[in-house]
Amino acid sequence: MTMTQQQHSARKLSPTSGASDIFSYHDASLSQVASPRSKLYTLSEKQRLQHVFLEKPWEIHFTSPLFHFDSRHLRQYVRDLIIHLRTLSVAAFHQEFGYQVQVYPFMSDTLFLFEVCEERAGTQNTIGPLEKKASKIGEEIIVHGSFMLYFPSKTSSTYVQATSLEELRRSMDSQHSKSSASSATTTNKKKKRKEPQHVIFMSGEESLLIRCCGWLQQQFQCVVGQQTAQLGYSHLRLLSNLLIFSCIQTMTPQQRRSTTGPFLLKYQSLNGTSNTKSYTMTIPFANAARLYSQESSKHVDEAPSITDVLTMIENLYFQQLPLNTSEFKLHELQMDAGSISSHGLLKIHLHEMIEPILNGILAMLEIYPVSSATQQALRL
Questions:
Q1: Rounded Cα distance, 171 and 309, in Å
Q2: How far apart are CA 183 and CA 19, in angstroms?
Q3: CA atoms of 114 and 206, how far apart (whole Å)
Q4: Per-residue pLDDT tens digits of the chain, which is 380 residues long
Q5: Domain range annotation of the chain
Q6: Backbone angles phi, psi at 290, to 5 degrees
Q7: Which is nearest to 133 in space by CA: 115, 118, 123, 148?
Q8: Counting Cβ atoms within 10 Å, is residue 171 exposed (0-12), middle (13-18) or buried (19+)?
Q9: Spatial distance between the Cα atoms of 102 and 115, rounded to a whole number of angstroms
Q10: Strand ranges (DSSP E) for the chain?
Q11: Percent helix, strand and coil across the chain, each to the nearest 5
Q12: Where does the source fall among the domains of life (predicted)?
């Protein structure tokens, strides 16, 4: 039994404001999708961003700059991506799959989130991971993937204090000087790059995202890193400080006490012979906010740096632990606002945290970029 284009399209994701297209393998033609009646169309930008971006686990990948990207051509990009995916499916599987691609522009066209849905016939021989991660509807297999591009505005003044390059530079210089006397010279050399480093955030089925990255590289003459970025210890501490600090700054004292839960600091041992391989501290958020307020009251002329927040917490709690804490390094932070780990996995739960965290990641790359975006194994 065949299905009409209208019947088939009704089962797919609802398009929102932005650009959207569908290609159905039941009808080998591209059809434009109207968006004004979409369920999300009438929502505010904040609500739409919460729906499509927040709560998802995102992997951080490096990329070289995307040349010629123009927000005025989003609809054409969507159609080009569908044609690219369709061509690959015919070449690889000898079958035309159904596709829906939606792009959401956010934050005054500085953030672009692409959502891709691939629908396959259930009788098609597919790769193992696809079957594990895909959701089956009847005899069809539906696979999802998302990727996010961020182009921060140079004139944006939001969270200037939290993303100050000079402050991050001083903190990282201090961190590196403790580990190596020559680290400052090495990192200064790294800063002299002809081409800035950027990041792309991915979530979803791996093979679909690989094909999407192929289109990005072809369309915008960029190189996307193949592996998830591994955050170094000092970089993870900076982002953790930034996340905690941003929460303290944006929440009222009443919110800190009543609505914000405790956060988890997870550490791993660097000593392979230690009996304790890891430990986790649970810190009430109100305690962290109170520590920061107390330090701020002691230094009226100069408030504590964002990079001091985590140190203040550790100084208070570490002395009560029966462990040699110098052998442990921060591995992951989990809190109501979001979470980040050394494996390059990022999850943001609050709309207010999106901009400072993304700006913080790019600020670190501007100060201490990796040597090349084409490396097989990428590390900050």
A1: 12
A2: 47
A3: 15
A4: 333 333 333 323 333 335 556 554 433 333 333 343 344 445 677 777 777 788 789 998 888 888 889 999 999 999 999 999 999 999 988 888 899 999 989 888 888 999 999 998 765 444 444 444 445 545 678 999 999 998 876 544 343 344 454 555 555 555 545 444 444 444 444 444 445 667 899 999 999 999 999 999 999 998 888 778 877 787 888 888 888 888 888 777 776 666 778 899 999 988 878 888 888 999 998 888 888 888 877 766 666 666 678 888 888 888 878 777 788 899 999 998 889 998 888 998 888 888 878 877 877 766 655 444 344 433 43
A5: 5-153+200-220, 165-193+229-367
A6: -70, -40
A7: 118
A8: buried
A9: 5
A10: 19-24, 27-32, 58-63, 98-106, 111-121, 135-137, 140-150, 198-204, 263-269, 278-283, 328-335, 338-341, 345-348
A11: 40, 25, 35
A12: Eukaryota
**Single-letter amino acid, residue 15:** P
Length of the chain: 380
User: Locate tokens 């590390």: which residue?
Assistant: 379
